[in-house]
Amino acid sequence: MICLIRIIFRMNIQHVLFVCFLSALCGGDSGLVSARLNLYTGAVGGSGTINCPLRLSGSNKFFCKEECKAEDILIRTDGVTAHSGRYSIKYRNDSSERGTLSVTITDLTKSDSGRYRCGLGQTLVPDSYIDFEIRVSDAPLGRNSSFIRTLAEGENITYGCSNTVYRKKKFLCKGDCKTEEDILIETEENRAQNGRYSIEYKEGSLYELYMTITQATKSDTGWYKCGYGRALSPDSSYKLPILVIDASTPTPTATPASAATQLSNVLLYVIVTAVIIVIILGLVLTIICIQRNTKLDCWKTRGNSDGKNLEMAIYENCPPVSTGADYQSLDPAIRNQDQTYSTLKHTQHT
């Protein structure tokens, strides 16, 4: 029993450490499958909305900037929608385990450039969140004044085709998708590739349908559409603009501020893990002590009982103490009387 408890205890501790380690590494969910942050470019005076797909559903929503300290919180609410100055958020439940938080910024200015976070739970230790960066430039993409997904030359990037409904046929096209020349991929397979472009269907994943561009060049800048059905007359599709910038332009990575936030999160996980270990260890030690005390009591009781039986056995088997000389010196009449007494005593004892 003790060995079994020790094995379970060891497995539980390893499981807790493994879960906490993964939680520290995978803090946020992202529709952008890349080592870098999601980068969006907007134009001065423009407005844009960014969708944050989250793997959890919850009541407490937030939208904040930089380190997400008290002075960095733009919006925090338990409601479905909220508005504060030029910022607004809107939340919808996609399922019992998923939700989408849409954040909007209007009348963009250069000071809006920076790092942002949208998510559920607490701002410093959120349950589910996405980090991204916004850059505000003077020149929009064509007439577009909303946010544009941005990547650097040479990068490989994958985007999820959100808000689409599954059909057997999948497609990816560029531009207006009104001619055959605009179609990059059209297939009924779960994965297809054409040069540097590919689409893949992953059942059960966050978006399920994904488009990928490898070794991006400036010529990849433009509008893209991915979805289900025929490309020229889709049943369900998602359209997004992509902007490719010079590779020499700095791309967003983890800043010292975000690194400090991640460090604080890791420390919190370590503290929680240590508390759980202490609690489990205390319970295991208590069980072991109880079992050992029970066994000691049993051994004590058994020893006393055996001692008493042994004492009685020794007493009953002891013959009368006498010497042969004394016995022989007795009168024959007395010896006959003693023999008769011994016989009667033996019979009575038996």
Characterise the protein shown here:
The protein has 350 residues and is an alpha+beta fold. The protein is 31% helix and 33% strand. The protein is built from four helices and 18 strands. It has helices at residues 2-25, 256-316, 324-328, 332-349, and strands spanning 38-43, 48-54, 61-65, 73-77, 81-84, 87-93, 99-105, 114-121, 126-137, 148-152, 157-160, 170-174, 183-187, 191-194, 197-201, 209-213, 222-230, 233-245. The chain has a ten-stranded mixed β-sheet with strand order 4-3-8-9-1-10-18-17-12-13, with no helix packed on it. Strand 14 (191-194) and strand 15 (197-201) form a beta hairpin. Helix 1 (2-25) packs antiparallel against helix 2 (256-316). The longest helix has 61 residues, at 256-316. The radius of gyration is 41 Å and the shape is globular. Residues 1-35, 254-260, 305-318 and 322-327 have low confidence and may be disordered.
Radius of gyration, in Å, reads: 41 Å
Strand order of the largest sheet: 4-3-8-9-1-10-18-17-12-13
Task: Give the CA-based shape.
Answer: globular
SSE run: HEEEEEEEEEEEEEEEEEEHHH
% residues in beta strands: 25-35%
End-to-end Cα distance, whole Å, is 48 Å
Our count of helices gives 4
Q: What are the low-pLDDT stretches, counting only 5+ consecutive residues below 50?
A: 1-35, 254-260, 305-318, 322-327
| Number of E-type strands | 18
The averaged pLDDT comes out at: 76
Q: Which structural category do the helix and sheet elements fall into?
A: alpha+beta
Largest sheet: 10 strands, mixed
Helix content: 25-40%
